[in-house]
Amino acid sequence: MRNGLSWGAGALVLVGPLLVQAATLDEVRERDQLRCGVNAAQPGFSALDDEDTYRGLDTDVCRAIAAAALGDAGKVQFVPLDSVERFTALQSGEVDVLSRTTTWTSSRDTTLGVNFTGVSYYDGQAFMVASDLGVQSALELDGAAVCTQSGTTSELNLADYFRVNDMAYEPVVFDSPEQSIGGFEAGRCDVLSSDASQLYAQRMQLADPDSAVVLPEIISKEPLGPAVRQGDDQWFNIVKWSLFAMLNAEEMGITRDNVDEMLDAEDPDIARLLGRDGNYGEGMGLPADWAYEIIRQVGNYDEVFARNVGEGSDFNIARGLNALWTEGGIQYAPPVR
Amino acid sequence: MTIQREMIPARPAPGSTIGPIAWLRANLFSGPVNTVFTLLGLYLLYLLLVPTIQWAFIDADWIGTSRADCSREGACWVFINARIGQFIYGLYPGSEIWRVNLTFAVFAALIAWLAIPRLPFKRWVAVLTLVAFPLLAYFLLYGGHFGLRVVETHRWGGLTLTLILAVVGMVGALPIGILLALGRRSQMPIVKSFCVVFIEFWRGVPLITVLFMASVMLPLFMPTGVSVDRLIRAFIGITLFQSAYMAEVIRGGLQAIPRGQEEAAAALGMTYWKRMGLIVLPQALKMMIPGIVNTFISLFKDTTLVMIIGLFDLLGIVQAALSDSRWLGFALEGYVFAAFMFWIFCFSMSRYSQYLERKLHTGHKR
Asked: How confident is the model at residue A17 (pLDDT cuts 50, 70, 90)?
């Protein structure tokens, strides 16, 4: 019978990568380390600094999950993954969670045996122009030469956008981000188009970053978020609520610095989030102070955003869509109660 | 009439046939066409070298700690300076770096002992290098015994990892390659067909797909929870791949040994292994040095492909450093540094092979 089961499991692997694994949380606890699949080199999201540490928005999401699951944000092993092997690494159990600037799409969510748990960053394709051109909106770009990368969805989105808005453009196609920013700087094109997060990183590579501006228009939907294996709902909940806890903390004004004072706050919402009133970690197999540990060790969403990609960083990306729902954005977390 | 009884003393050759000017005239300005090409060549060299030197040395920034210390007019070597520890040791913990240094010092000493002809006990040192050293390297680098802290392989990186991969690949590929080459020339049908299939299979697929298979497919076939270390997967992939290439290089050398050599050895009553080990292989291996070193150099450079399975070799760690938001925009410096390091190692290997050829040269040189 056991043999039959394992053969069945083997067949499942062959038919569709659908590994049913029990209790990722128990494995993580036994190992006393979270294995988190990240990008090897994505400025602002996951990049190696000169102290041998990974820094970025994606890696801070991993740290938050470790803080919730293990009580220590430092217990993360970052596994750098190529874009091709990222889903296999998750399916095979090599990583517990994938937080690697991965766009949430229907096909990935439904056919790869993974579940996306939420959106840590709303990205999308945008345009960058030289600031002395005085262009204010992408709709003024009729007839422009546009630098872009070959073989990406950016190239297709670009064609659609210009056709829909009845504008002409001349594509100038490059192979890599370094080449396309080089082409932009050398004046091969007036406009550089790519995902907004990447544009801000490319802008920093210019000799004078202030010589270029990123236009406000976003022409595609690229919601980036962490993903887990299908079949372990408890772990799915932990990853999902780790992100929600950071968003809720921002909404309530709880930061890394004031979280200890907030423990005594009167507000029942805060008391529930920080585990002073009831135990909302229990349903996930976590202690009552799971969210408190996330905020104390990693910070709320605003702090994480600011220090990695926002105003506290070199990129200075505006919150835009990533602002809370109360401030004109679409980041919205269900309440803890 | 006077009779000259002494020889007229030899006069110096005319100024137009010796010295640098004559050399220039003979080699560079011997005719109008050559003169034009020489001048053109000099001009191209001038166009190429002046900006390069200007960029790499004159306008370059050497001292500092952050991006602000770089004027951006020339190269920013500050970036390399700030990261050099990471480029060489990867993420190996700072307090344990002596272990890496010791491993490579021991390795260099053993290799030097083998390479310098005057030193005795070559055979014992060779045994030490092949048997004791890998164990020592494992205990030192990985740890977990003798009070050494475990340093997991995901922390290995940079030049250290490149060298480890290359050395393991070379040490593993050569003996397997020799066995495969002998097997392919064997009369025994099963041995022969196994070797042919093995060689043709591994030679027929690109290394990048081998590594992809090892990292993407292999984990899916393993039972849940069992995972083979990424570095081990890379070792196995690279060694099997290179041994197939090595086998063909060695077979080429074996073909060049006249049949009479082996027949004569057989006539003396030598067994197969004696014939091969004492008569055929020593002659064949000597002739194959250029081919073997060629394969080693290409293996050394192929190790950069492990980047795609998430291991940071020298090139991988340079690329990772390029995405640090504090050091964006220094791609050129990073790649120049990586290329320079690779060149140093590949060039040394090539020089050593030439030295070895001269030393073992016994009438095969053409």
From this structure: very low
Token representation of residue B308 = 């795609």
Judging contacts by C-beta atoms under 8 Å, the chain B residues touching residue A59 are none
Q: Which residue stretches of B54-157 are H helix?
A: 77-89, 97-115, 122-127, 133-142
Whether the CB-CB separation of A121 and A80 falls below 8 Å is answered with no
Q: Which residues of A touch B222 (CB under 8 A)?
A: 92
Q: What is the CA radius of gyration of chain A?
A: 22
Q: Which of A19, A41, A207 is facing B224, going by the closest CB pair?
A: A19
Question: Cβ contacts (< 8 Å) between A84 and chain B: which residues?
Answer: 212, 216, 308
Percent of chain B residues topping a pLDDT of 90: 31
Q: Which of B324, B327, B330 to mutate to test the interface with A (most CBs of A within 10 A)?
A: B324
How far A130 CA sits from the closest chain B CA (Å)?
Answer: 18
CA distance B132 to B300: 23
How many other CB atoms sit within 10 Å of the CB of residue A4? 8
Position A90: which residue type? L
The domains located in chain A, with CATH, are: 24-120+225-313 (3.40.190.10), 124-220 (3.40.190.10)
- Are the CB atoms for A202 and A128 separated by under 8 Å? yes
* Three-class SS state of A42: strand
* CA dist list (Å): B65 to B62, B81, B85: 10, 8, 14
Detail the DSSP E strand segments found in A184-238. Answer: 191-195, 212-214, 222-224, 227-229
Size of interface A-B (CB pairs under 8 A): 104
| Closest alpha carbon to B323 in A152, A47, A19, A227 | A47
Distance CA A152, CA A162 (A): 16
Domains, chain B: 77-92+151-364 (1.10.3720.10)
Average pLDDT over residues A291-296: 95
Is residue A58 a contact partner of residue A79, using CB atoms and an 8 Å limit?
no
Of A141, A22, A79, give the one whose Cα is nearest residue B225. Answer: A22
B278-307: average pLDDT: 88
Q: Do A41 and B319 touch (CB under 8 A)?
A: yes
Question: What's the farthest any 2 CA atoms get from each other in chain B?
Answer: 112
Which residue in the set B216, B309, B323 is minimally distant from A47, CB to CB?
B323
- Which residues, 6+ apart, have CB-to-CB distance to B150 below 8 Å? B142, B143, B144
Q: Which of A41, A85, A94 lies nearest to residue B323, judging by beta carbons?
A: A41
Closest by alpha carbon to A77, among A62, A67, A64? A62
- pTM reported for the whole predicted model: 0.83
Q: How distant is the Cα of A77 from the closest Cα of chain B, in angstroms? A: 9
Q: What is the pLDDT of residues A66-125, one digit of tens each?
A: 999 999 999 999 998 887 788 888 988 889 999 998 889 898 999 999 999 999 999 999
